[in-house]
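Example for tutorial group B:
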C-alpha cells in the first residue's frame, strides 16, 4: 500500500530480538544482523521476491537494500522516486511504486484529480527507471455502496490506463481487509477487484493480491489464486494472525501457496510484507527461504 510512512499500522512493532533463520554466523543472534553477515538465501529463484520497505523502519534503506541484494531479493518496493537511487545502487528495482493514499482513493469523484495526478507521476517514475508497477486504492466506503464505488473507480482508472499502456507500466489495485486493519476499506473481496479489472479492460490493470488481508476476509487462498490468476499482477505476504513472520507460528502455509503461484506461470513479483517480531533481517531471510520453492 502507499501510506507506508508510518503504517500498515506502524513501524513500532518491528522489534529486534532473537530468531532462528539463515543469517550466517549465529543460530540465535542477540543483535540485529549486519549486511556483511548475510549470505544468499535464494537458490531456486522460481519466485521473484521483493521486500516492502515500510516494514523495516528500524533499518536504513541503504542497510535493507544491501541485505536484500545479498539474500537474492530483487526489489525493495513501495518507494518514492527519491529512494530509487539507493535501491538501484545494489542492483535492485522497485517492483511497486507508491502513489496516493489508501483511505481517500479513486472510488470518490472528489478524489479523482489528486489521485490521477499521483498515479501518472508514479507511472512516469516507474517507466523512467524500468520498474513494472504502480499502486492504487479505491479508498474507504464512507457510506458509499460498493457498486457506486466500483463505477467511480472504473471512470478514474480508464482515464489513466491508456497512459500506463503507453509507458508499459501496470496499475495494481490492492486488496486489503476491512475487518482488522483497514476499517471501511472498499476492496475487501476478490469479486470487487476482478470486476474492476474486467470493466477497465486492460492488461495494464491488475490486482495486488495481499495474502494476509485475503486470508482475514475470505480465506481459500490457493483456489482464489488458481481461479483468478489472470487478474493478479503482484502478491504480498504476511502471517495471520498478527501480520508477523510467515513461519509455523501462523495459520497460512506459504510453501504450498508459493507452489500454487509458480504453477500458474506467474513471472512478476511477490513482496514480503510482514512486520518482523524478531530480528528483522533474520526473519526476512527465513521468509525468503520459505518462499523459494
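The residue assignment follows.
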Amino acid at each position: 500500500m502507499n501510506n507506508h510512512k508510518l503504517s500498515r499500522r506502524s513501524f513500532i512493532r518491528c522489534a529486534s530480538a532473537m530468531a532462528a533463520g539463515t543469517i550466517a554466523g549465529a543460530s540465535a543472534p542477540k543483535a540485529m544482523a549486519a549486511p556483511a553477515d548475510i549470505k544468499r538465501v535464494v537458490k531456486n529463484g522460481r519466485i521473484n521476491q521483493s521486500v516492502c520497505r515500510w516494514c523495516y523502519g528500524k533499518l536504513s534503506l541503504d542497510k535493507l537494500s544491501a541485505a536484500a541484494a545479498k539474500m537474492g531479493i530483487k526489489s525493495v518496493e513501495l518507494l518514492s522516486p527519491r529512494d530509487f537511487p539507493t535501491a538501484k545502487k545494489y542492483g535492485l528495482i522497485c517492483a511497486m511504486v507508491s502513489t496516493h493514499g489508501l483511505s481517500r482513493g479513486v472510488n470518490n469523484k472528489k478524489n479523482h484529480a489528486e489521485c490521477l495526478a499521483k498515479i501518472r507521476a508514479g507511472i512516469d517514475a516507474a517507466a523512467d527507471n524500468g520498474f513494472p508497477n504502480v499502486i492504487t486504492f479505491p479508498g474507504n466506503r464512507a457510506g458509499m455502496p460498493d457498486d457506486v464505488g466500483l463505477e467511480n473507480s472504473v471512470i478514474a482508472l480508464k482515464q489513466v490506463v491508456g497512459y500506463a499502456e503507453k509507458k508499459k507500466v501496470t496499475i495494481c489495485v490492492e486488496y486489503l481487509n476491512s475487518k482488522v486493519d483497514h476499517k471501511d476499506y472498499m476492496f475487501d473481496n476478490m469479486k470487487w477487484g476482478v470486476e474492476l479489472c474486467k470493466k477497465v479492460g486492460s492488461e495494464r490493470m491488475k490486482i495486488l493480491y495481499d495474502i494476509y488481508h485475503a486470508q482475514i476476509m475470505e480465506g481459500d487462498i490457493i483456489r482464489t489464486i488458481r481461479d483468478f490468476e489472470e487478474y493478479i499482477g503482484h502478491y504480498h505476504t504476511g502471517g495471520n494472525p498478527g501480520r508477523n513472520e510467515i513461519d509455523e507460528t501462523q495459520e497460512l502455509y506459504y510453501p504450498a501457496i508459493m507452489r500454487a503461484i509458480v504453477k500458474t506461470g506467474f513471472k512478476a513479483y511477490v513482496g514480503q510484507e510482514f512486520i518482523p517480531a524478531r530480528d528483522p533481517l533474520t526473519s526476512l531471510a527465513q521468509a525468503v527461504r520459505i518462499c523459494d520453492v
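Strands lie at 48-52, 75-77, 133-136, 170-174, 205-210, 232-236, 269-272. Compare this with the pattern of hydrophobic and polar residues in the output above.
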